[in-house]
Write a structure and sequence with these properties.
Layout (H helix, E strand, L loop, with lengths): L6 E4 L3 H13 L4 E4 L2 H10 L4 E5 L7 H10 L7 E6 L4 H10 L3 E4 L4 H33 L9 H18 L3 E8 L2 H8 L1 H18 L6 E6 L2 E7 L3 H17 L2 E3 L2 E4 L3 E8 L10 H17 L4 E6 L14 E4 L2
Parallel strand pairs: 1-2, 1-3, 3-4, 4-5, 11-12
Antiparallel strand pairs: 6-8, 6-11, 7-8, 9-10, 12-13
Helix pairs in contact: 2-3, 7-8, 8-9
């Protein structure tokens, strides 16, 4: 028996309730038993049960009402409901199935028949589990860059908007860092595209090992450009993180089949907004465009460096301004 699916037994007759509980436990199931539908709902709201065996006729709330109520609830998974009843006419069976029951057992129940009905219900639950896992795999593939394993641009478009809304709602800062591998075309031209792909993978690995797990995240923006989102991080914090990433990239050595190893560097553009930033200037497009201009400036000034500036309205970031921050090494 599959004991991974706990069972809720709802039966007002104490003898039948104990018999069901004993029979199911002997078969290896975890069982909770209650007297009526009201008690069942109280227990159900505290713990999810994928299988419910319920009597039809009970005080306070009968089996049909319990079925209807369960079907109206928002639950983490499907619930197989088996109706236990002395009513065995076709009309009664139809009423039970229409109320939301998946199956029924006629009293007095037969042990082998009970086991068979449970097995049928568990097949439904296992099928649902397989479908959920398959759908989750499809969902992950739909938001993942197939080469590097980080998030893709589609996820960036959707999730960045959510991060902005959350930061604004709670009055928090948000930083965005756009980074680009320096002279990446030269790597492809010299060593081939397979080596270029390896460099991209290693670059993302370096980033993911440096950022905060389950807080910051990275997405491929296109080609050799990647966006790093830093929630609850102001501009200075974003620049500090970008410097850590820049230094880690510069210090790394990438082993490649075509040669012993190669070294790479990257350029970074960082922008951020805080609670004081006017809402009218904040958008995913504005953040990415600002970071992109700053990164372009870093490239123009010699690469392997960081340019950072706050998100502001109607300002050319390529002009020297007092708030513009630039860091480089060597």
């Amino acid at each position: 028996m599959d004991s991974t699916f706990p069972i809720l037994v709802v039966e007002d007759n104490p003898v039948t309730r104990r018999l069901l509980q004993k029979t199911l436990k002997r078969s290896g199931y975890h069982v909770v038993a209650v007297e009526n539908g009201r008690q069942a709902l109280e227990v159900f709201r505290k713990q999810f049960f994928p299988i419910v065996i319920t009597d039809w006729v009970m005080p306070e709330m009968d089996g049909l009402e319990l079925c209807r109520t369960i079907r109206e609830m928002e639950l983490p998974g499907y619930v197989v409901i088996i109706l236990l009843t002395a009513k065995d006419s076709k009309d009664d069976i139809i009423r039970g199935l229409d109320a939301g029951a998946d199956d029924y057992l006629t009293k007095p129940f037969n042990h082998p028949e009970l086991v068979a009905r449970l097995r049928a219900g568990i097949r439904i639950l296992n099928l649902e589990k397989s479908l959920k896992e398959a759908n989750e795999e499809i969902r992950i593939l739909s938001i993942t860059d197939p080469l590097t394993g980080c998030y893709n641009r589609g996820f960036l478009t959707e999730r960045l908007n959510q991060e902005i809304k959350r930061a604004r709602r709670y009055g928090r800062a948000l930083s965005l860092c756009l980074c680009d591998i320096d002279h990446f075309k030269r790597i492809n031209d010299t060593f081939g595209h397979q080596t270029g792909d390896l460099v991209l993978k290693e670059f993302v690995k370096i980033i993911e090992e440096s950022i905060r797990k389950d807080v910051d995240w990275v997405a491929r923006y296109g080609g050799e450009e990647f966006v790093v989102i830093l929630p609850e991080t102001d501009l200075q914090g974003g620049i500090c993180m970008a410097e850590r990433l820049r230094a880690s990239v510069e210090a790394s050595t990438i082993e490649i089949p075509a040669a012993d190893s190669i070294k790479i560097t990257a350029s970074f553009g960082v922008t951020a907004f805080g609670p004081e930033t006017p809402e009218a200037v904040i958008s995913p497009e504005a953040m990415i465009n600002t970071a992109d201009q700053l990164m372009y400036q870093a490239k123009k000034e010699g690469r392997n460096r960081i340019k950072g500036a706050p998100l502001e309205a109607e300002r050319s970031l390529l002009q020297p301004v007092e708030s513009l921050v630039s860091r480089s090494v060597g």
